[in-house]
Amino acid sequence: MAVPGTNAVAPPGVSATDDQLQMGARAGKPVQRSPAARVLLAAAVLLGVLVPVVLAVVTGGLSIPHNDAWSYSRIAQTFGLTGRIELLGWNRSALFGQFMVLGPLARWLVAQQVFVALLGIVALAAVYDLLVSSLGRARAAFAVLIVAIWPGFGLLATSFMPDVPAMAAMMICLAVGRRALLSGSTWLLAVSTAFGLWGFTIREQALAAPAAVLLLAAVAAWRSRRKRDWIVLCVTGALFLLGALGFELWRQSYGAGDPPVLSVPSTLLQLGGSVVVRGYFLLALGLVPAVLLVARPWRWGRWAILGSLAAFAVAVAAVLRFGVQGFFVGNYLDPAGPYWGAGNGRPATIFPPQLWMLIVAIACGSGVLLAGLVVRRLRYINPVLGVFLTLMVVGNVGSALSGQNLFDRYWLLAMPPLLAVVLSERTAPGNSAFARVAERVPAVAALAGLAAVSLTVTAAGLAYDSARWDAGNRLVAMGIPAVDVNAGLEWNGYRSAVGMVPPGSWTFPGSSSCFIVTVVQRPERPEVMVLSYRPLIVAGTARLWVYDNGCSAP
Questions:
Q1: Which of the 8 DSSP states describes residue 432?
Q2: Contact in structure between 107 and 80 (CB atoms under 8 Å)
Q3: Dihedral sign, CA of 322, 323, 324, 330?
Q4: CA atoms within 13 A on the CB side of 273
Q5: Average model confidence (pLDDT) for the chain?
Q6: Which residues contact 472 (CB under 8 A, 6 or more apart)?
Q7: Which of 159, 326, 500, 513 is the right S-S partner for 66, CB 3.0 to 4.6 Å?
Q8: pLDDT per position as a tens digit, 533-551
């Protein structure tokens, strides 16, 4: 059941050294360890998970809900305490597979979020396993580090949002699935689809991973024309479909909770193009270190140069169309900080205008070079990653075209396949030690800059969430009922009596805004207190104002 292209042989352009190491591994010979790979993997875990966890502990963010996870955490907490599942009108994701595996541990928010952090490490390990056969140890580890410093990864890894758990399930599904397709192992195919099914119970979009594996298994069965391969495929596929359908019917028996409101936009072509373009340049920003490591446009052929010129024209049009402030999709990577709309008012920018302009310019430059690399290397991508990438892009565009919100974090899953494409480009080393070091300087600088942006996003999100939560707790300590305090989406939802009714409405029956916590000064309102906090945890100064709207008294 082996699929051509899924084996461990590197694509054309990979150095003989990497190829020899891989062939030695397949022959059972000892493979030399890569100290660089170990350092890069350690840095990935440190910057992507451990440092964010430390920041969450310092701010108190590890014990409070974040963003949409106010609902996910509260649903999980109820399950952990009572064994019951009670939806709250803000749970569009499948979600059940994320908290049910925790059992009684789900009653503690800290346990929930530590679990996600551990899954963050698992996701990074799975990305490494998925890429190492085609890129070699060092470049696969470099790719993992780039994924770990995606702006927002650290914040997602320290909250009960479903992105990281779903990513872990999907990356394991793909990594095991690649091995199953290579070896023809029935058991590995079953394990792959089992993890794919688990991912589906966390987030429906995770269907892309098992779908990619099963589609390629069907191609392998068709090519082999062996009855056994067809039987394995049919049985595995049928079990997966029955499991997915059974889960969905069972989940719907609890009520959809927050079903998507499907509305087909009138300008399909314009919206679809906008989604693809903004997503592309967001990915290009995340891929900057890899692009700068391998891009040598003066050595490219005609088609790669034309691809880059086309990307340059699109970049100019995108800046004119969306402006600098709204250039990216938004939600986590935003000048005012991650998901700032969950609070009351727009906070001061965490990225000064000049720095934000530089970030957009770097994304555009990277996008121009990325287009040339894609033209040169896309045909060499591992089929598993290629099909998965296609399904993810189609899924994101389809979601946007159906009227659903599309956030920047939805593009994170496209990073591993694109890193496989970019880093498969090999360049001739410099003639001297100085030249070899100089060639790596731009990539290292970009890596450091991207890590700084990522940690800034993480720190800003944790600081703002914790400051608003602390303000709410102070009002409760003064004798004010929690349901009379509006400290933002997380507080309002988590402290509400019955959740959001109707689903998706941002309305919490029984709750009011008698006291509001906001970043906007309102001199016309009676001021209760003013709280200062550091928006970057260790730097900066920002304020929260608490106002009495006159409908309640302590």
A1: S
A2: yes
A3: negative
A4: 10
A5: 89
A6: 482, 485, 487, 491, 495, 517
A7: 159
A8: 999 888 889 999 999 988 7
